[in-house]
Design goal:
There is one protein chain. This protein is of the alpha/beta class and 310 residues long. The protein has twelve helices and seven strands. The chain folds into two domains: 59 residues, no CATH class; 235 residues, Leucine-rich repeat, LRR (right-handed beta-alpha superhelix) (Alpha-Beta Horseshoe), CATH 3.80.10. The protein is 37% helix and 7% strand. A seven-stranded mixed beta sheet has the order 1-2-3-4-5-7-6, with no helix packed on it. Helix 5 packs across helix 9. The protein is elongated and about 70 Å long. The N and C termini lie far apart (79 Å). InterPro entries: Leu-rich_rpt_Cys-con_subtyp (IPR006553), LRR_dom_sf (IPR032675).
Length: 310
C-alpha cells in the first residue's frame, strides 16, 4: 500500500483551497508554483482572481523569467466594443500576473493607456491597429513608465506601435525616455523614416530587417493556447461593461502600405555605463540631485513638449 508524499499532500491542499491562500512566500516556484499554474489553466478547477494576484505578488521575478503562455493574453474588440472592460477587470484584480499583453485592434484610446498602471511585470506590450491612439497615448505610456516601480512598467522590453497613423515624429522623444526598452516596432505609422534613422541610433538602437522580440512566447497571443483564461476574463469584464457605447474610429483603420516598415532593437550592456562615467561633469550638476520626479511632473513635462511642437 502506497502513501501520498508530503509534497503531494501540500500540493493537493493548495489546489483545493486557492481562494483561501493569502501568500505563497517561501514556496518554490519550480516545481510547486509552476505546477499550480498549469493545474489552474488546464483542469476544471475554477479560476479566481485572488490566487493569480498571490502568485504574482510572491513570485514576480520567477514569473517574468518563466515566460509562460498562461501569463500572456490577447484582448481584442468584440461587436465594435473595445477591450476596456476586460482591461479594467485585470487592472483591478491581478495586473501583476500579466507579462505579455496584446491590445492590437482592441479599439482603445489614449486615456485607456492609464489602465496599464500596476502591470509591473509586463515585458511585452502590443498596441498596434488602434487608430484612436496618437502621440498623446505614447506620452501617457511614458509617464507610467517613469512612475514608481510599484505602479509603473519597470521591465517593459518589447513595444509594438505598428499601424498607428496617429503616431508621428513627436513620439520618438517619448520612446527615447524608456530605459528598459530593447525592441520597438513603429512600422506603418506617420513617423518619418529619416528622422527615426537619425534619432533612434543616438539612443543605442539599430534598424533590423526582421521582427525581433526579446520576450517571445510561442502562441502567446493565441486564444486557443489560453482559452480558459480568455473566457474567465470575459466573464469578469461584464461587471465593468456598464452598457458601453461603441466608439467611433477617428482615423482610417487600414495600414498605409506606403508607410515604411521600421523595426529597431538595441542591447543594454555595461558599455552604456562606461560612456556615462566618461562625463562626470554631467553627474555632478546640482540639477541631478532632483532627478526623483513624480508621475505628474513627468506628465506635465511631456505635455509641455507636445504643446511646444504644436
Amino acid at each position: 500500500m502506497s502513501f501520498p508524499s508530503l509534497f503531494s499532500i501540500c500540493f493537493d491542499y493548495i489546489k483545493e483551497h486557492t481562494q483561501d491562500i493569502v501568500s505563497l512566500e517561501g514556496v518554490p516556484f519550480s516545481p510547486v508554483i509552476e505546477g499550480l499554474i498549469q493545474h489552474l489553466f488546464t483542469s476544471d478547477t475554477p479560476l479566481n482572481p485572488s490566487i493569480l494576484s498571490v502568485i504574482s505578488e510572491s513570485h514576480s521575478k520567477e514569473l517574468r523569467k518563466a515566460q509562460l503562455t498562461w501569463s500572456s493574453l490577447l484582448l481584442s474588440k468584440a461587436a465594435n466594443r473595445s477591450a476596456v472592460p476586460a482591461l479594467t477587470a485585470i487592472s483591478k484584480h491581478f495586473p501583476k500576473f500579466i507579462t505579455c499583453l496584446k491590445l492590437g485592434q482592441s479599439n482603445i484610446c489614449n486615456q485607456d493607456i492609464f489602465l496599464l498602471r500596476g502591470f509591473t511585470n509586463l515585458k511585452t506590450l502590443h498596441l498596434g491597429q488602434n487608430p484612436n491612439i496618437t502621440d498623446r497615448g505614447v506620452l501617457y505610456l511614458t509617464s507610467i513608465i517613469s512612475a514608481a516601480p510599484s505602479i509603473g512598467l519597470p521591465y517593459l522590453e518589447d513595444l509594438h506601435l505598428c499601424d498607428l497613423p496617429g503616431i508621428t515624429d513627436k513620439s520618438l522623444k517619448f520612446i527615447g525616455k524608456i530605459p528598459t526598452l530593447l525592441y520597438i516596432d513603429i512600422s506603418h505609422t506617420n513617423i518619418t523614416e529619416l528622422v527615426a534613422l537619425r534619432y533612434l541610433p543616438k539612443m543605442g538602437y539599430r534598424r533590423v530587417t526582421e521582427r525581433i522580440t526579446p520576450f517571445q512566447i510561442k502562441s502567446a497571443f493565441d486564444i486557443f493556447a489560453n482559452t480558459k483564461f480568455y473566457w474567465f476574463i470575459k466573464e469578469l469584464a461584464f461587471q465593468y461593461d456598464q452598457g458601453q457605447i461603441p466608439r467611433p474610429l477617428t482615423v482610417e483603420n487600414l495600414p498605409n502600405l506606403n508607410l515604411p516598415t521600421l523595426h529597431f532593437s538595441r542591447t543594454l550592456t555595461k558599455h552604456v555605463d562606461t560612456v556615462k562615467k566618461k562625463k562626470p561633469f554631467v553627474e555632478s550638476r546640482p540639477v541631478n540631485k532632483k532627478q526623483r520626479l513624480t508621475t505628474n511632473d513627468y506628465l506635465a513635462m511631456f505635455e509641455q513638449e507636445i504643446a511646444d511642437d504644436d
